[in-house]
Amino acid sequence: MKNTLLKVFLSFLTILCTSLTYSQDVSGSVSDSNGPLPGATILVKGTTNSTQTNMDGNYTIRNVGLNATLIFSYIGLKTQEINVKGKSVVNTLLKVDSAELNEVLIIGFGKQSKRKLTDNIASISAEQINQIPISNLQGALTAKAAGVQITQINGKVEGGVKIRVRGISSISSSQEPLYVLDGMPIINDNESVSAAPINPLISLNPNDVASIEILKDASSAAIYGARGTNGVVLITTKQGKSGKTKISLNSSAGWSEATHKMSWLNAAQYVELFTEASANTWGASDLWLTEPGGSFDKLSNGLDWRNGQIDTDWQDLALVKGSVQDHTFSISGGDSKTVFFLSGGYNNTQGIVRGNSMDRYSYRGNLDHKVSDKLRVGLNTSLSKSHITRIGTDNSFATPLQAVAQSPLSPAYLADGITPNNESTLYYNFLMQEFNGSWDVNIFRTIMNSYLEYKILPELSFKTELGYDNNNQTEEYFSGSLTQSASTNGYADANAIQSDKYSINNYFTYNKTFKEDYDLEFVGGMSFEESARKRQYVAGTGFPSDDLQTVESASEITSGLSSRTKYNFLSYFGRATFSIKDKYLLKGSLRYDGSSRFGASNRYGVFPAASAGWIISQEDFLKDNNTISLLKLRGSFGITGNAGIGNFASLGLFNGSAYNKTSAINPSQLSNQDLKWEKTNQVDAGIDFGFLNNRVSGEIDYYVKKTNDLLLNEPLPGTSGWSTLTRNVGSLTNKGFEFVLNTTNVKTDNLSWKTSLNLATLNNKVTNLPGGDIVDERNIVRVGETISSFYLVQYAGVDPANGDALFYKNTPNSDGSLDKTKTNDYNEANRVISGSPYPTFMTGMTNTILFKNLDFSFTFQGEWGASLYNEAGKFQSGNARYEDNQTTDQLNRWQNSGDITNVPQARMHRTNGQQASTRYLEKSDFIRLRNLSLGYTLPKKISQKISVDRLRLYMTGVNLLTFTNYTGYDPESSYDNNGDSNIRKGIAFYSAPPAKTIIIGLNIDL
Where do the TonB-dependent receptor-like beta-barrel domain residues begin and end (predicted)? Predict the structure, then answer.
């Protein structure tokens, strides 16, 4: 018995010694061309024994056989196998695999290599963003992503920006994407006190951004569930890297002007046209316009208009030369434990619309610190102050661009050349407000996001994020005693809005490789957000002096209010990705969202998504193909939501009020406890391809988005005592193709030329609307048609016999066709669907050329299929119906029997074709040279002599050329005074064009 025990003990000892002899611990580092790689995976081949590098790129893996092989891998880099051969230290440098799409993309709550992506995500790098030194972040994305339309409403420096991802998916609910900054959803509410919006993201400095990912399909966006319907924009800011401290300076300055000016009548033409129009109405013997003391004399204010003494170009007074300055200074670096990025920025933009300007000061500090091998913490902070000098909305006479309605016979100034004059103009002289009033907006924004990440196991980590966003905006308006507020001896108001958002994310990430061929990642956690808003407003009249411009100095407080509101989201989410043999890809996600905005019975919504991919080029029959570098099929399905409605839309509300000087409570909103989530089902099928070692690569996608239970502010009969009720009504569908092609056309030691082309189609249709048509002025929502289609009487030109404006009757015939008989009686004509405010085809093309130390790039953008209705056309192109100055095309009016023209006879103060019709509807197709940049980088031999790592001089042009048949100011500029209507679209009304800007700049890296 003792011998047996002894033999067992000796055998065990032998095995243990053998094990100790033939296995060891191996340590080392993993890096790439940019430095250490945190999170790289090291696997002992043929086993499940694995580990990952720490934040410094170092690792230790235990129990490694003396002759074992280690497999080193990292997303986006070429996997490498190394035999340890008894060595205890193994360092490796992973290289870019030119045979793969190696880009690493940020996704919701993580990141993933583009090669293994089963979603449709558009990515824009810092290099692409910084090529366009403009003040707003969204403008840098224009034409860079297929299926994403980005439009600034007009040329005002603070003007709102519309981003539409794969069309319009709602009627009355929000149509804007969700913005997520460094993992935190941020405030994107327009807080303008007027109907003209202020871009909520104007406080962000584009120079601080490292990358932007736009989540377009449901599989990628569903991780954000309730707010993913309109797409998700993930913004990642720049981070420091360990090593040498890097100092960068980007400084630029430039000048700008309007992209286009319209042609208006000069004084002589104005006299000719209106004299004729008066004669056509009252007879040639009626000289009320031209006689001494007549209307023309009053307009000219004593100047001799008969001999050309007065000819005011009001357009040149309204649209002026602008300028821009942008300066950013940054410091980044760190050591093995702490990395940092600090930046400060200043932007000054003097707008092309007179009296409109912006100053922005910004600071960003990003800090990451490794407490231990298992614990890491970080804090991202952004502070900014923006000061905006505003002008009136498009529908106010105080706005400069409405000055084009003034007669060229009216002087803009009195004889002293200084004091504006309002006695001889047709309408209020906007210069009165510029010199005797003010409208200032100050926006203070603070965004902070902190995190703590703890590695529980090599494969399992936990991360908690706490975010805070504060948007504090004050608007102060003053109109002095010499302005349109003269009757009240001045008017002033003050408006203060404070918006706060708190967010908490807690989630686990599990990442494991099994038997070399099976990769699993799981993310699961919860999210909570609370948003609050407070507003205070006060107004007063009667000021003792125009030098005292705050409400405090008013003799009478005429109005005031204060309000506060709050809403929150509580969410649980999970996502799993699984790949087999690096070629079969699966992904699924689920989000359970609750919102305080919906009724108690429908407060929570479930938003699932799934996707799959097959990398065909990894199969044996294609793996060694010299032509095909990548061929991947992918498909996805998912459900996303929209909660962009009022905070208490499901509740019956009451307001406090006064009745006969007694306090009272009035009902203000009907309740709808059945109100539920608006949901969008989306299917996406795509192909990713790469040829010739990826010198040619791209994507082809087809998608279908169907939105059900549309959230609609449904109009109610006036007899009900209510105007609207928010309900779930109807459905609509968006579908389209997207095509992306990236090519390396030339690649030599001294010359490279790359082209990126994207194309997208869009087909939008309303598929169900139980309540029937919804008509809002010029637009209609109708089943079978594009949402917000134009609904207008069809203009038929001019009767050659008498100069009458003609319209098509469009009365339905018994066979379903329309009667195209012409009539000069507008009331006999029926409205018809006449166009769409949304493009059906969009494209963008960027070329980048590098020749030795020269770099040259340019981007073209194009849109086709949309139309714009000029609501101001009846005034400014109305064949002298009103006394407003006219566009020069009105000189082509009908004058004699037999004249063939599209402009009716001029009849002053008589309607002849000025009614709402397709006369003022135009196609807004265009191709635009969005940006062009030429730069020169000083050779390193020279720059190093002055202790500079890199010095680059450049010149950039923005909106340099526009090719269009649209005759208005700009095919992208639209009315900024639509108020709360989400149906009224594609309307222009004295809308300022964007700026054409040329910038000279300098980049220095130390």
Answer: 427-764
Task: Flag the least confident range among 105-109, 254-258, 969-973.
Answer: 105-109
Contact 658, 664 (CB under 8 A): yes
Find the angle CA(810)-CA(816)-CA(820) to the nearest 5 degrees. 25
Helix (H, G, I), strand (E, B) or coil at 532: strand
Q: What pLDDT is attached to residue 12?
A: 45
pLDDT of residue 338: 93
The domains spanning 18-97 and 138-240+320-639+678-794+829-878+914-1005 adopt the same CATH topology: no
Per-domain residue ranges of the chain = 18-97, 138-240+320-639+678-794+829-878+914-1005
Distance CA 596, CA 602 (A): 10
Q: Strand ranges (DSSP E) for 542-660?
A: 556-580, 584-595, 604-615, 628-642, 653-659
* pTM score: 0.88
Determine the length of the chain: 1006
Alpha helices in 179-294 (DSSP H): 218-221, 267-282
Q: What is the pLDDT of residues 500-514, one digit of tens each?
A: 999 999 999 999 988
The half-sphere exposure of 322 on its side-chain side, counting CA atoms within 13 A, is 29
CA-nearest of 81, 94, 110 to 40 is: 94
Fold of 138-240+320-639+678-794+829-878+914-1005: Maltoporin; Chain A (2.40.170)
Q: Give the integer Cα–Cα distance in Å for 633 and 102.
A: 17
Write down the pLDDT at residue 7: 52
Q: Give 18-97's CATH code, choosing from 3.30.1360.70, 3.10.180.10, 2.40.128.630, 2.60.40.1120.
A: 2.60.40.1120
Residue 954 banded pLDDT, cuts 50, 70, 90: very high
pLDDT (0 to 100) of residue 102 = 59
As a whole number of angstroms, the distance between CA 252 and CA 504 comes to 38
Written as six digits, the tokens of 750 are 């001294």
